[in-house]
C-alpha cells in the first residue's frame, strides 16, 4: 500500500473523530448525494422546459421529448397529468 494512501486514511479518520478540521466522510457523502439529486433536477427542468415550448407553440412534441417525459413520470410518482 502506498504511504500516501495510508496518510490520507489516517487524516480522514482524525477528521471523522473531530480531532482535526475538515469535511467528515458523512458530510462528503451527503454533498455527493445532493449534487447527484441536483443534476437530476436540472435534467427534469430541461425536459419540462422543452415540453413547455412545444405546448406554447401548439404543436406536438418530438418523440424523443415524449419519451423523456414518460421516463420522468416513472421516476417521479408525484407528477400528475
Q: Which characteristics define this entry?
A:
single chain; 81 residues; mainly alpha; 3 helices
Please tell me about this protein's structure.
With 81 residues, this protein is mostly helical. The chain has one domain (3-75). Helices cover 75% and strands 0% of the residues. The protein has 3 helices and no strands. The chain has helices spanning 3-17, 25-57, 63-75. α2 packs across α3. The radius of gyration is 22 Å and the shape is rod-shaped.
Topology:
Layout: H1 3-17, H2 25-57, H3 63-75
Helix pairs in contact: 2-3
Give the structure's gist in a few sentences:
The mean pLDDT is 85.
Count of discrete structural domains = 1
> In which range does the helix fraction lie?
over 70%
How large is the count of helical segments?
A: 3
Major β-sheet, in short? none
Report, as a whole number of angstroms, the end-to-end distance.
56 Å
Number of strands: 0
Radius of gyration: 22 Å
Give the SSE order as H and E letters: HHH
Main structural class: mainly alpha
Mean pLDDT: 85
Report the principal-axis shape. rod-shaped
- The poorly predicted ranges are none
Strand % is under 5%
Amino acid at each position: 500500500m502506498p504511504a500516501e494512501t495510508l496518510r490520507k486514511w489516517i487524516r480522514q479518520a482524525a477528521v471523522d473523530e473531530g480531532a482535526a478540521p475538515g469535511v467528515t466522510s458523512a458530510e462528503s457523502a451527503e454533498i455527493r448525494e445532493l449534487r447527484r439529486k441536483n443534476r437530476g433536477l436540472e435534467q427534469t427542468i430541461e425536459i419540462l422546459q422543452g415540453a413547455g415550448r412545444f405546448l406554447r407553440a401548439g404543436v406536438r412534441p418530438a418523440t424523443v421529448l415524449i419519451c423523456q417525459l414518460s421516463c420522468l413520470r416513472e421516476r417521479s410518482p408525484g407528477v400528475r397529468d
